[in-house]
Amino acid sequence: MPTYVVERYVSRSTASELRSEGEKVTQAGQELKGDEKDAIAYLSSIYMPDDEVSLCLFSGDSADSIAACFERAQIAFDRILEAEVMEP
């Protein structure tokens, strides 16, 4: 499944708040997809508190499906882009 980065501008938050929101979005995906294997999955986040920016990685079948999950979970986002994750 492709990987997407979700860019969010968030006021001062804690890492646990952001993690909880990622889990809420994943739960919304399971509800929308009926808990299928192709439901979206929260992978990780990078949070830059000084800039109030969060970049969240999700796997899913499309940017639209991830957006639908954020909307269902009532969590704001700024944009979603397909990404390639490169690890050493």
How would you describe what is shown here?
With 88 residues, the chain is of the alpha+beta class. Helix content is 33%, strand content 31%. It has one domain: ORF SCO4226, nickel-binding ferredoxin-like monomer (Alpha-Beta Plaits), CATH 3.30.70. The chain has two helices and four strands. The longest helix is centred in the N-terminal third of the chain and has 19 residues. It is globular and about 35 Å long.
Pairing-aware structural class of the strands and helices? alpha+beta
The CATH homologous superfamily is named ORF SCO4226, nickel-binding ferredoxin-like monomer
The order of strands across the largest sheet is: 2-3-1-4
Radius of gyration: 12 Å
Count of helical regions: 2
Could you say how many structural domains there are in total?
A: 1
What percentage of the residues does DSSP assign to strands (E)?
25-35%
